[in-house]
Amino acid sequence: MTHDESADVPGLVAASELPGVPDEFQRLWTPHRMAYIQAGADAMREACPFCSAPGKSDEDGLIVHRGRSAYVLLNLFPYNSGHLLVCPYRHVATYDQATPEEVGEIAALTQRGMQVLRGVSRCDGFNIGMNQGRVAGAGVDEHLHQHIVPRWDTDANFFPIIAKTKALPSLPGQVRQAVADAWRE
Question: Where is this motif: Histidine triad motif (predicted)?
Fold first, then answer.
């Protein structure tokens, strides 16, 4: 982005106008991860984040839609911007423990999430999936949740492979608001 282009974006300041000495390092600002760092991984096991999220405001819980038996929220630790999770309100660990109503609503919310993300982010595809149990890779293995990860033809780069880093161009609050607004349309 050039200096002239940055003038058109509210709140964006050209790097040349900021104090400091430029160097060859790139900085990835990820302030949303501080909650995880400060609480530690044990806090996730002590209190289920998917049981507590519905008791918070939509903004604080990163919730984009509330259904009857399931809801949709942004992943606080996303693989890509717009990474959504579809969760039943009820605390069940695996898909086979979900009721037919929960299964149906999880499926319908997944479809709607894909439609909304396609409109909001113009993604080229999706990874959809559930990790059942810690051995299968579930970060929160005691509460069922389905991932909807938007993908773009250009989203693969060396960061995740070499540096174990994912560059996310939008902050969670901005993404949550855009998805929640589009969901209601």
Answer: 143-147
**Order of strands across the sheet with 70-74?**
63-66, 70-74, 84-88, 146-151, 125-129
Q: What is the pTM of this model?
A: 0.70
Query: How is the chain split into domains, by residue range?
Result: 29-183
**Cα gap 144→129, rounded to integer Å:** 11
The CATH number of the domain covering residues in 29-183: 3.30.428.10
CB 111 within 8 A of CB 67: no
Q: How many CB atoms lie within 10 A of CB 155?
A: 17
Catalytic residues: 145
Where on the phi/psi map is residue 46: left (φ > 0), alpha (ψ -120 to 50), or beta?
A: alpha
